[in-house]
Amino acid sequence: MSKMKIKGIIPPVVTPFHESGEVDYQRFAQNVQKWNKDKVSGFLALGSNSETIYLNEEEKLTIIKETVQAAKKDLLIMAGTGMESARETIALTNKAAKLGAHMALILTPFYYKGAMTSEALIRYFSDVANHSDIPILIYNVPKYTHINVSADMLEVLSHHPNIIGMKDSTGDIPQLAAFKKFLPADFNLIVGTASALFPALTLGVEAAILALANCNPRECVRIQEAYEDGDLIAAKEIYQSLIPLNTAVTGTYGIPGLKYACDLMGYQGGFVRSPMMQINEQDKKKVKHIINQTMENLVRVDSEYTRK
């Protein structure tokens, strides 16, 4: 029995907060309704860019519920339900399933890093997959966990019938190529950063979960569309135009910068939750400048290919 196929661009949706720190569910739903029109393939609720680590269980479940209710019915709903123990991960995953999530993205446990051997992680993911009511994907994000999923570990887990893929947020193209070479054809290897999107497409990766898709979903979609249409030059130029903005919202200015970029692009970024700090006025000007440059470059790319 083949595994569920995942294809296209998926935003790991931001969580707008009120200035008081409460979740702004109204703005959250407005974002989902707007993204519905942007040709995205689905939504990741409770990813790293959702400030999930700052949310309690009630808030997490409400966000999943709001996503399911606001999303177009043909779009994929993925929920980030990884906790530090297998027991809690299974419990949250199955609550997400009851609310309508189609699959769960499970972060590698990391707090007791020294104990997280390949053997321990294989056992953990297998245990979660065995008891989950929906398919699961591995979430490899060493930037936050300081744990990188090894090829040996992934090869074992890729054959589990209820582990259907992995989001790889390393941006490491040689590693992605190595993974792609040995993984089963029905295993969904998903790129997790826009900085690696074009190279990943050339390796046969067909899905991407991108922070940048919060503020520039249509442009991210256009890279994949152009590539699949055989217009590799256009795909590469759009991709290259977006790299400075992606660097700004995933590295330099982080989630506060991403949320401000969302505000500038007509989405609802809202406030961040403490102890995260709001983006300052000086950095706002820099983000605004990068966005203006990016959009100018994209207009130039469009005009060049319209003339051809």
TrEMBL record:
Gene3D superfamilies: Aldolase class I. It holds the Pfam family DHDPS. CDD domains: DHDPS-like (cd00408). Keywords: Lyase, Schiff base. Transmembrane segments: none annotated. Belongs to the DapA family. This is Dihydrodipicolinate synthase family protein.
